[in-house]
Amino acid sequence: MVFKFSQVCQLLENMEKVAQHEPQLPRYRADQTRRTTIVEWFAKHRSTLMEPTINGPAILSILFPERRKDMVYGMQEVRLATKVSTLMRFRAPQITQLYKYSEWGNGDMPACAQNATKEWDGSLVGDPITVDKILEVLEQLTAKCRFSSPAIQSKRNLSMDTDKILHGVLIKLRSWQIKWFLRVVLQQFTTVALDENLVLREYHFLLPELLHFQNDFEAVFALLKGPLSCYDSKPDIRVQKMLRMEASKHLRPTVGVKVGRPHFRKAWANGYGSLMTQDRRALHSVIKAALRVGTPGCLVKSKCILLGELVVYSDREQKILEFHKIRKHVSRSGSFIGVLQDSQCHDYEHLMIVLFDVLLVDDDITMSQGLQMRRDVLRRLVKYIPGRAMRSEWTILDFRSTGAEELKDLFARALALKYEGYILKPALSPYFPLQAQHEEWLPNFFVKLKKDYLADMGGSKDVGDFAVVGARYDSMLALKTGMDGSIRWTDFYLGCLTNKDSVRFGEKRKFKIVAVIKSESCIPKADLAYLNSHGQFRSIEYREGLELEPFDIVKNYGYGRSMAVAFKEPFVVEVLGSGYDKPSNESFLMLRHPRIKKVHRD
């Protein structure tokens, strides 16, 4: 039995119709309709989805392409559009239709590809494309990229011509299916935001917890088709909690399979999902020494799983250095990225590992124990090596008595020492909530405590005023704003005046681009609308190297795209950040995680 790609596309298409309904549905009704659409789709296909021969990882890889951090395509809209038009031999009118995505109000590139290929719908009859075939094509496309994980690269079939198999898939898909296929490749569903927890739970009631336990589709479905195959995919809700507790007894962490992150309150996440053992080889000997590998004092007989953070330590300054120092010590798939303006590696700087948790020691599944017990295991397991390996500092707080006051004192100390903040973790909770040894409720999330979260309680914020000197349009981000018909620009370029004193004597202004702020989550909707509506009266076309009459632009050395328009009279915005960091290929410090707080309109 097979599962057709068109069946997955139908779910996505139905979800898009809800988002694009005219007139726009009230929020509560739209949420209810989306939920009903998902529930009914899984109810319709449940018996097929649970067949042993159905490729579950392929279906989830299509529904949640952004979760496949191990698959890197190395293609954005421009390159993918060129490949599609070449492989499908578009005529001039179709090419024109395809590239309309670069103009505001026309949708993203996959939507324009749908319009360009609509006339061919139904012209080729053949076997339907299955999700297995789609995953095979995706794996072959990403296996060619050195930034994909070693596991994906090992699947490359040198006898396969990727252009040929890609063409073979495209010509068999209908136009609306091509749209979704291209969005999977771009790893962005611009018009659809699937409720991940609902989708996973409708597929199988254990999936959300299993993916938290092991963040790997293949590993999770191996469990569902192996030791957990006796569990129905959607049992009565009244017995689900009991069944989860029972199922947790079959869970064992596996060395080499990524463990899911805990749930954070007030946290930003970033990181590479692929295996980076070779890129961190400078730490291999340090980790072995910290674990006493090869000595009588080593407590590990065969395997262990530790959690830690990589940092750079300075022997000269006797401290851990800033985040940006890491990039000149660690490559990504052999390439050092963003280091053009960084100093050379000094002999007194080196990598260090800070270990903060242990999940497995041989056959002892420590992740099922409370944090306090895991820390005791970590203390016995890891040897402190000054400047090379250490356990993270921690303090037990009892909020039933003096914990709140102690936390205030600790936080004040952290600010004085210029720490980023603290993470609060429940002392008695296991790493994976399902593995609690009793049915008492335990908190299953961590709390990030940082000064910019506490502004309303007297805390300070890292803020600054910047000029918005230009902008550009990103069709995929435009769709996510819900303002596609009225939005002209999604990315805004922040500049700093570099010749303030000379300007007073009549010299032309010079702005250095210091950051690009994108509409997604970083600009309040009201301010985004203001910048778009008022910016059209200030904008002039801009190309790199073009001399502007109002001011000059000092070249930015980052890897981002250059702006498309400049604003004759720049806007002034208040920008909020979380500390300061050195941007890639630059020599100055800039706000970390910059986002617009407000536009100054006076």
What does this structure look like?
The chain is α+β, with helices and mostly antiparallel strands and 602 residues long. It folds into four domains: 5-186, DNA ligase, ATP-dependent, N-terminal domain (DNA ligase i, domain 1), CATH 1.10.3260.10; 205-251, no CATH class; 278-457, D-amino Acid Aminotransferase, Chain A, domain 1; 462-600, Beta Barrel (OB fold (Dihydrolipoamide Acetyltransferase, E2P)), CATH 2.40.50.140. Helices cover 33% and strands 17% of the residues. The chain has helices spanning 5-19, 27-49, 56-63, 77-87, 92-98, 109-117, 131-143, 150-153, 162-170, 175-186, 196-203, 207-213, 217-224, 240-247, 284-290, 371-381, 403-416, 475-481, 500-503, 519-522, 525-535; strands at residues 263-265, 304-314, 319-320, 349-361, 389-391, 421-424, 445-450, 462-472, 491-497, 509-518, 539-541, 551-554, 565-577, 580-581, 590-591, 595-600. Strands 8, 9, 10, 11, 12, 13 and 16 form a seven-stranded mixed β-sheet that branches. Strands 3-2-4-5 form a four-stranded mixed β-sheet. A hairpin with an 8-residue loop joins strand 14 (580-581) and strand 15 (590-591). Helix 1 (5-19) packs antiparallel against helix 2 (27-49) and helix 3 (56-63) crosses helix 7. The chain is globular, with a radius of gyration of 26 Å. The model is unreliable at 265-274 (pLDDT under 50). Keywords: ATP-binding, Ligase, Nucleotide-binding, Nucleus. One of its GO terms (molecular function) is ATP binding.
